[in-house]
Amino acid sequence: MAITIVEHQAEAPAGPLAGWLTEAGADHTVVQPYLGEPVPARADGGLIVLGGSASAWEDEVCPWLPATRGLIARCVADGVPTLGICLGAQLMTIACGGTVERGAAGLEVGLTALTPLPQAAGDPLFGGLGPAVAVQYHQDATTVPPPGAVPLLTGERYPHQAYRLGEAAWAAQFHLEADHEIFARWTSATAGALTAAGHSPGELDAEVRREQDRLTRTWRPVGHAFAGLCLSRSGVREVQASRR
Fold first, then answer.
1. CA distances, 98 to each of 35, 49, 82, 143 (Å)
2. Given the DSSP bridges, would you call strands 47-49 and 3-6 parallel, antiparallel or unpaired?
3. For the chain, how many structural domains are there in total?
4. If DSSP codes are grouped into helix, strand and coil, which group holds residue 113?
5. Measured distance CA(112)–CA(108) in Å, rounded
6. Which PANTHER family match (predicted)?
7. Are 137 and 109 in contact (CB under 8 A)?
8. CATH number of the domain residue 144 falls in
9. What value does the mean pLDDT of the chain take?
10. CB contact set of 65 (below 8 Å; sequence gap of 6+)
11. How many whole angstroms separate alpha carbon 122 and alpha carbon 107?
12. Which domain, by its residues, includes 46?
């Protein structure tokens, strides 16, 4: 069964993450609801929900968000491997009973440091990480994680950088899927706003470009690990089905 990837806008694709899934032997299919494709009712092969410029509560801007939150909630309840990235993470938070708000610390953009928490030890996705860096571009943030969420990674500006919910669902506030080319497209499209806020788009781009190899070394194994979880679950389901 293929992993379902929900893409909210063309400017925020799965990027290198899609290639890492393929490297690990996992098929995937991309759903583009902004082009009129329906959000599926189920995603039994695994689910990845990507980022986007909308807020997680802006259903009038992105009318498919309620269906996406419903899909996330079903996957979490069913133990389907699920990964929410930035907006996807915030949608998971809301879908599962937490709170997302406009971040009091303002815009978090560029390359930022992440620190593993003790609870991350042994985690199937993030357990092998030491201190890491990741691409960020967000202004909203999880302020109250869902009940039962296990915090895994924290940061200086916003503490809830990653958590696990249940046995197989993860929320990542940062963009593990974004390489320097994707990030440069974001900063180019918002250069005026970034400059007005005191940021240098050129400096932000240069820093991400310099650290591209480190980003790949850090997040590629996470992509492989998620693919492995999906393949393992699919294999179990196929064996169970063959015995009926």
1. 29, 17, 17, 8
2. parallel
3. 1
4. strand
5. 8
6. GLUTAMINE AMIDOTRANSFERASE YLR126C-RELATED (PTHR42695:SF5)
7. yes
8. 3.40.50.880
9. 95
10. 54, 56, 57, 58, 59, 91
11. 31
12. 3-242
What lies within 8 Å, CB to CB, of 45 at 6+ separation is 1, 2, 3, 4, 27, 80, 230, 234
Angle of helix 212-242 versus helix 201-210 axis, rounded to 10: 60
Please say whether the beta carbons of 152 and 169 come within 8 A.
no
Q: What percent of the chain has pLDDT over 70?
A: 96
Q: Widest CA span of the chain, in angstroms?
A: 62
Residue 87: count of CB within 10 angstroms of its CB: 28
The reported pTM is: 0.95
Q: Is the pLDDT of residue 240 over 80?
A: no
Structure tokens at 105: 């610390």
Instruction: Quote the distance between the C-alpha of residue 231 and its chain's center.
Output: 19
CB 80 within 8 A of CB 117: no
Which residues, at least 6 apart from 229, have a Cβ–Cβ distance to it below 8 Å?
46, 81, 124, 125, 168
Q: Convert the pLDDT of each residue in 65-102 to its tens digit.
A: 999 999 999 999 999 999 999 999 999 999 999 999 99
Query: For residue range 158-167, what is the model confidence (pLDDT) as tens digits?
Result: 999 999 999 9
Segment 184-199, tens digit of pLDDT? 999 999 999 999 999 9
* Interatomic CA distance for residues 194 and 173, integer angstroms: 20
Q: Are 48 and 6 in contact (CB under 8 A)?
A: yes
Task: Identify whether the C-beta of residue 187 lies closer than 8 Å to the C-beta of residue 209.
Answer: no
* pLDDT of 13 higher than 50: yes
